[in-house]
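Incident review: delayed structure delivery

Summary: a single-chain prediction request sat in the queue longer than the usual turnaround. Root cause was a stuck worker, restarted by the on-call engineer. No data loss occurred. The affected request and its eventual output are reproduced below so the record is complete for anyone auditing the incident later.

Affected input:
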Amino acid sequence: MRMRAAVLEEFGEPLVVQELELTEPKRGEALVRLEACGVCHTDLYTASGVDPSGYAPTVLGHEGAGVVEAIGPEVGSLTVGDHVVTLFSPQCGECVHCRDERTNLCLAIREQQNKGYLPDGTTRLRRDGEEIRHFMGTSTFAEYTVMPEIALAKVNPEAPLDRACLFACGLSTGLGAAMNTAKVRAGSTCVVFGAGMVGLGAVAGCRLQGAERIICIDLSEERLELARGQGATETMIGGDGVAERIVEGTDGFGADYTFEATGNVQVMRQAVESARMAWGLATMAGVAGKGETLDVVPRLLITGRRVAGSSFGGVKGREGVPMLIDRYLAGEIDVDPFISHRISLDEVNRGFELMEDQDGIRSVIQLN
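Output delivered after worker restart:
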C-alpha cells in the first residue's frame, strides 16, 4: 500500500514528507492505521545526528496510537479494530527479562530493532525499491505502520487516541520512574528535576504513590505551574546551589527520592547530591548527550545514596500501558495539559522547532 511518512534523509536536515510503499504484515506482525503521534525529544535527538546509534534514511516517530487494520499469520492477541499504543520497548512475555519482575527490557527483538529492522531482519518500508529502515521498531511519523505484535499494547477503545499516544513514551517513562523504578513510598519526600513531559509524569507518579512532599525544579515558571497541577506541593527555580537548598529544606539530610528528567549531566549530579544520606534514591530518566559522563563524589554513595537508571519507567508495555490508560480514564491522571500544540504530518518539522524553543510540553501530530 502507498502511504505518506516523514523521512529522515540526512542528519541535521529537515524531515521530508513523501509517499512510501508499506508492505503487508508478516508472521507475528500487524498493520496499524495511526491516528496520533507525539513529537518526542528522542526523535529530535536522532534527527540532529548526535545519537551514536542513529541511521538514515528512516521514518522517525515512536509515540504513536492507532487502530489495527490487518494482522499477519500467528497473531493471537490482536484483532482488526483493536485500539493500540505503539511500544518502542516490546514485551514478548517469554525471554528471561520478560519473566523477571526486575526489568522491562525485553530481549526478543532487540538486536534487529537497534539496526532498524523488524524481527526477520528486513523492513516493510520501501521507496522505489530501496529499503527504508524502521525507527525504534515503530516509525510512527506516518499514516500507517507495520509492527510486531509484541510491540503493540491493546488499550481501552474509550481512550482518545490523541491522549493515549502520550503513554507510548514520555508520560509512561515519568509515571513509571516513580511507580516502578523508585517505588516511591507513601509519606515520602520527592524531588523532580525538570518539568517537561517525563518530569511532569514523575510528579504525577509520586502523587499517585502517596508522597507527602513533591518538589519540582525547572527554569520555567510556566512549566512549574503545570507541575503544581500534576501534584507538586512545592516548586523551585533551578540553577547553581539547588542541591544545597534541597538538603537545607529537608532537615539537612536530603530527599527520600530524586528524579532527573532533563538529560543534563550537571542536573544528574544535583539529583544525586539532593538524595538523602542513608537511603536516598536518585533515579535517572533523562538521556545524556553522546560521550557525556556523570561525575559523582564516591562518598555520597558510601553514605547510603543509590543511583538507578530507568528506561520507559520500568513499564512492561503490553501489561503496564493499558493499566496506566485505565487510570487516566478513571480521572487519576490529567493528560490534557500536556498537549500544547496539534499539528499535521506536513508540520512535523515545526514540532521540532517548538520543542527546541521549549514552547509547550508536547506537540501531537494528527494523522488519519
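Verification: The chain has a mean pLDDT of 97.
Action items: add queue-age alerting; document worker restart procedure.
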